[in-house]
Amino acid sequence: MSAWVIIHWFELGTLALLCLNLWFVSSVLNALRETNRWIAFLSRIQWEQTQGPAPGSAPS
Predict the structure, then answer these.
(1) Which long-range contacts (CB under 8 A, 24 or more apart) does 33-39 make?
(2) Which pTM does this prediction carry?
(3) What values do phi and psi take at 2, rounded to 5?
(4) CB 21 within 8 Å of CB 27
(5) Distance in Å from the first CA to the final CA of the chain
(6) Most distant CA pair in the chain, distance
(7) DSSP letters along 16-48, please?
(8) pLDDT, tens digit, 9 for 90 and up, residues 33-44
(9) Which residues in 7-26 are b (16+ Cβ under 10 Å) and which e?
(10) What DSSP string runs through 2-23?
């Protein structure tokens, strides 16, 4: 009986670690996505400051 309990605790621990790993990977990917969004936003602002507005765009 005790061997059965040990095996299942090991399986539950492995499942918990897998869930934590998936959560961590999801958090890292979300942070990378946000970083990419901000880099694109800031580079677009810098491009508009150096090159002026795009042709055909209405002046604001």
Answers:
(1) none
(2) 0.62
(3) -70, -35
(4) no
(5) 76
(6) 78
(7) HHHHHHHHHHHHHHHHHHHHHHHHHHHHHHHHH
(8) 999 999 999 888
(9) eeeeeeeeeeeeeeeeeeee
(10) HHHHHHHHHHHHHHHHHHHHHH
